[in-house]
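Recall that a protein's primary structure is simply its ordered list of amino acids. Everything else, from secondary elements to tertiary packing, is in principle encoded there. The following example makes that idea concrete.
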Amino acid sequence: MGGAVEARLAELGLTLPAVVPPLASYQPAVQSGVYVYTSGQLPMVDGKLAVTGKVGAEVTPDEAKELAKTCALNALAAVKSVAGDLDRIKRVVKVVGFVASATDFTGHPAVVNGASELLGEVLGDKGVHARSAVGVAVLPLDAPVEVEVQVELVDA
């Protein structure tokens, strides 16, 4: 398995997935100094989206919140791919969530709470972060939600 963070994931009944392969010309995550920046993570499970469409239309806010959790889990896998060990996370600095939504939907923060809450459950105080929740017209592959994460690492 891994260290304490992966043990906590297991306690929560979660498994760190394989890193989602890029859909275009980018890396899932890059490290610059003590920071790791993930690319936007879609709610991919086993290489595919379980749900597509707009939040507030084809996708309920509760479904989207669950999908945001999956995005955060995929982001942790991307962080591990460059940091080597999730126990190196000193803190989550920033989370940005994008919600593909119907034009009258305004519950973006509640949807992105899925990602924020997962990071808090897994990392405790290290998971507390700044955040933006943004509504957009459409996301890649017609995904309902996308999440990117920035973390600070302890020195190697």
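The chain has a mean pLDDT of 96. The helical segments are 4-11, 61-83, 108-123.
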